[in-house]
Amino acid sequence: MNSASAPQQLPLGVTLRDDARFENYQTGDNGLVCEMLRQSAVGEGEPFLYIWGAQGTGCSHLLQAACHAAEPRKRTAVYLPLNELLSLSPVILEGMEHLDLVCVDNVEAVATLPEWEEALFHLYNRIRQEQNTLIVAAHSAPRQLSINLPDLVSRLSWGAVFSVVALHDEDKIQAIQLRAKIRGIDLAEDVARYLVHHASRSMNDLCLMLDRLDKASLMAQRKVTIPFIKQEMNW
Q1: How far out from the chain centre does Cα 175 lie?
Q2: 3-state secondary structure (DSSP) of residue 122
Q3: How many CA atoms does the CB half-sphere of 44 hold within 13 Å?
Q4: Which of 2, 105, 232, 234 has the CB geometry, 3.0–4.6 Å to 81, for a possible disulfide?
Q5: 177 contact partners, CB below 8 Å, separation of at least 6
Q6: CA atoms of 149 and 121, how far apart (whole Å)
Q7: For 80-105, what is the mean pLDDT?
Q8: Cα–Cα distances in angstroms (integers) from residue 146 to residues 48, 55, 132, 150, 202, in the given order
């Protein structure tokens, strides 16, 4: 098949985050999951993978990272966050089986929606027939979803199923420092530790807070320090 030089995206306002890469993901206890995803992304691993984890564990990051990882191998890839696509017809899934890699995120969003459940079921079958790769992510294990179509539940369990676990506090400190470094912020360890211990333990919330502090520090022309955080966050 014809391959593109970069991960493909639909003209639906869905884009890959440039910083959502394996190199930017703090692995913690998810080393095996990351390695399995890397292998599948480049066509050398399992053709079907299902990962699940609570909000903030980074499942969406990992699916987008897989799409980015496919790029150097000239593999066509698409990232489909179903929670953002429900306003569209499930017909958008037709033809996706011809791509080398399809990453379907937030599969719980289609639960109890008959047309979407059936469309996703048929996509599984077509990808298998084309011998391409499908990676799916959700907030819980396949049989814990409220999927009404039994055959879809079966398909979701076809390949390897992995739980993505939350980071320990020490890993979160390293993760927030890594994200800060990517943004050009020199975040000292004691400052990162202060953030993790005084803010929400959710990595999503911590990253949003870091973005806010980054913008505020640029406007104030000040470094992100503990006194600056106290002032900006009213702590």
Answers
A1: 15
A2: helix
A3: 8
A4: 105
A5: 187, 189, 192
A6: 9
A7: 95
A8: 21, 17, 27, 10, 25
